[in-house]
Amino acid sequence: MAPVIPGFDYRRVPVADGVSLNAAVAGTGSPIVLLHGFPQTHLMWRHVAADLAADHTVICPDLRGYGASDKPAETGGGTYAKRTMAADIVALAGALGHERFALAGHDRGALVAIRAGLDHPEVITHLAGLDVLPTLDMWEVMHGVTAAVGFHLYLMAQPPGLPEQMIAASSDAFFGYFLDVWTKDPRAIPADVRAAYLDASRAAVPSIVADYRASAGVDVAHDRADREAGNRLRMPVTVLQQDWGAALGFDAAALWGAWASDLRHIPVTFGHFMAEEAPAEVAGALRDLLSRRTTGAR
After folding, report:
1. 295 falls in which pLDDT band (50, 70, 90)?
2. Of the residues 51, 107, 131, 223, which is catalytic?
3. How many Cα atoms are found within 13 Å in the side-chain-facing hemisphere of 70?
4. What is the number of other CB atoms lying within 10 angstroms of the CB of residue 215?
């Protein structure tokens, strides 16, 4: 049996036609939704979620296409567009009784959170992103040999067929590679959790690839349209980020500042899986974010 977050109630919640999300819920108080990254599930938030549930309603879903959530077949770029996945999260929170909520995402989940903030500013009160750049900026800073660090982005951007076949042929090695090289403290992901991540990823190769493929197509188009329209995140935003810029030659705070005026960009020395490596620090940053004044959509 896969590990669970102790003390959390698990629910399957319909969010779209034929799509239900698996979600762990606990606590009372103002709501915050926590979105996981790759190659993980909602379990990555287990420590932070338990901390925040002391005085907040905490909702930890598996994203569409991941974990125990539904994995609709890719029928076009829209199936796993971050716009679609963000709408899932708004529907999930609404079904649980929350018309407005804070949202934090790591990695892929952060891309969904950004899109939710841009598309639903009247719903998202506060937004946090862990170790990510907005999709459009991510592609623009990848160039030359330094782009080799993101080889998986290019692999999964290819048309349907070959990426799925290659990854499925050695899925544990592929997904396990990222769990190893992106973790500074291997103890942060114990054996049972690692096994759960690998099991979940192995069972979701087509949908994970579709998620990444969307980020090389429709997601870029949506970001570009927002940039050209001057659309920005209207809520308080906190970003925790490793210093990618030192290696890839960009100013992460400046890139984020173009999307959010009320921004706190915090460089960190933790590994990529910071919610598991430094949960107290991440929970503290989220509490600080939630204490910031929000005036709602404007």
Report:
1. low
2. 107
3. 17
4. 23
